[in-house]
Amino acid sequence: MTTLQEPPAATRAGVRPRVVGRTGLYALLLANAVVVAVFFVQAGFASNTLIVLGRLTGLYGSLLMAFQLLLVARLPWFDRRIGMDRLTSWHRWTGFSVLWLLLAHAVFIVFGYAQSSSLDPVNQLVDLAETVEGVLRAITALAIVIVVGVVSARSARRRLAYETWHFIHLYTYVAVVLAFTHQVAAGTTFTSSTAAKTYWYAVWGLALASVFVGRLVLPLWRNLRHQLRVTAVVPESDHVVSVYITGRDLDRLPARAGQFFLWRFLTKDRWWQANPFSLSAAPDGRTLRLTAKRAGDGSEALRHLKVGTRVFAEGPYGAFTTLHRTRPDAVLIAGGVGVTPIRALLEELRGHAVVIYRVATDQDAVLYDELRDLAHAKGAELHLVTGPPVPDLLAPGELTRLVPDIAGRDIYLCGPPPMMNAVLGSLRELDVPKAQIHFERFSLAG
């Protein structure tokens, strides 16, 4: 199609935001690991080897536990640069590292003291719990961490409802408090060095403050400030509905096309449930819009919302934005209802864009009329690709046929996981640089 196009956007120069955010986290963790090692050495080694190893694994387990809190604090600076899905994934694997370090800490300490006292390990553990302040709290914390680790394993996670898993996961905060009080009571660094004691109080204080601010203070402040309400509920098809939301001073809400919120609609039967939905239109400072496909009770209830319903929204979240542009032109690839952030991104993007919309049938093309009109107005190309999941209709050959210069463009990808995995494989075969591929797995956001 030929229409007037916007001037091509300049290629973003300098270090990529995701690299800045990731490097910042790595540098923070490494610097603290070095500080912990220095304080550990300063405290001395007046114990047998097992006890020394137990102390070291305990210290690094504590450090990673505090780092875990930072990863899920939802601090805007990190979230916009890294994305909640990646931060959540790092939190998961850091959690398993914490579990193994704390298990190693317990085993080394118990067997180390048993070696010194000639007690068997079981009696030695009982003796430590009865005679050393904080050890019983540490045992309780370790038990909680083990339970959380077990239910977080993929096989167990698939069998649990999200609400059940989340409720169990909240006990991690109890484990954090118990572990810290154990460290205060029995930790060698606390008893041997004022500087180390100050350091650990600062580490735990900043980690807990990050969670408090990012997960509680910031959402409460934004919702009190913006007073969000439903203004319209528009069925897009038998299975898809759009909800329009307005409020005060929305021009001061730092939301961007491609981001999502955790939406909580304050009705008597759904107020307790938050669902992640992307913005399906670029924020204009007056209205927010989400579009959702019926996939469960939460999304089905959207169709029955009444105008005026109060909304509590946590966010905006996500790094699926134009902040990460590296090239003047772009390819936007959407699958099914994954078109919602793609449609919003197309509205905001500058430069030439090619939109590829993958659906099973024409009837599944959500917001297609809007997308077609927007593509026409922006001078973008729009390709509707229909057909069953097999064979793969977005194989490397088909992508290069639709977009011959695909390796020289930014690619934004959103859709069902199988489709996304297939497209990512095609892009690898086409040697598209990773820095130009932008995607977010919204299923992790809840």
Automatic annotation (TrEMBL):
<protein>
    <submittedName>
        <fullName>Ferric reductase-like transmembrane domain-containing protein</fullName>
    </submittedName>
</protein>
<dbReference type="Pfam" id="PF00175">
    <property type="entry name" value="NAD_binding_1"/>
</dbReference>
<dbReference type="InterPro" id="IPR039261">
    <property type="entry name" value="FNR_nucleotide-bd"/>
</dbReference>
<keyword id="KW-0479">Metal-binding</keyword>
<dbReference type="InterPro" id="IPR050415">
    <property type="entry name" value="MRET"/>
</dbReference>
<dbReference type="InterPro" id="IPR017927">
    <property type="entry name" value="FAD-bd_FR_type"/>
</dbReference>
<feature type="transmembrane region" description="Helical">
    <location>
        <begin position="134"/>
        <end position="153"/>
    </location>
</feature>
<keyword id="KW-0472">Membrane</keyword>
<dbReference type="InterPro" id="IPR013130">
    <property type="entry name" value="Fe3_Rdtase_TM_dom"/>
</dbReference>
<keyword id="KW-0274">FAD</keyword>
<keyword id="KW-0408">Iron</keyword>
<dbReference type="Pfam" id="PF01794">
    <property type="entry name" value="Ferric_reduct"/>
</dbReference>
<feature type="transmembrane region" description="Helical">
    <location>
        <begin position="51"/>
        <end position="72"/>
    </location>
</feature>
<keyword id="KW-0560">Oxidoreductase</keyword>
<feature type="transmembrane region" description="Helical">
    <location>
        <begin position="25"/>
        <end position="45"/>
    </location>
</feature>
<keyword id="KW-0285">Flavoprotein</keyword>
<keyword id="KW-0812">Transmembrane</keyword>
<keyword id="KW-0001">2Fe-2S</keyword>
<feature type="transmembrane region" description="Helical">
    <location>
        <begin position="198"/>
        <end position="218"/>
    </location>
</feature>
<feature type="transmembrane region" description="Helical">
    <location>
        <begin position="93"/>
        <end position="114"/>
    </location>
</feature>
<feature type="domain" description="FAD-binding FR-type">
    <location>
        <begin position="223"/>
        <end position="323"/>
    </location>
</feature>
<keyword id="KW-0411">Iron-sulfur</keyword>
<feature type="transmembrane region" description="Helical">
    <location>
        <begin position="165"/>
        <end position="186"/>
    </location>
</feature>
<keyword id="KW-1133">Transmembrane helix</keyword>
<dbReference type="InterPro" id="IPR001433">
    <property type="entry name" value="OxRdtase_FAD/NAD-bd"/>
</dbReference>
<dbReference type="InterPro" id="IPR017938">
    <property type="entry name" value="Riboflavin_synthase-like_b-brl"/>
</dbReference>
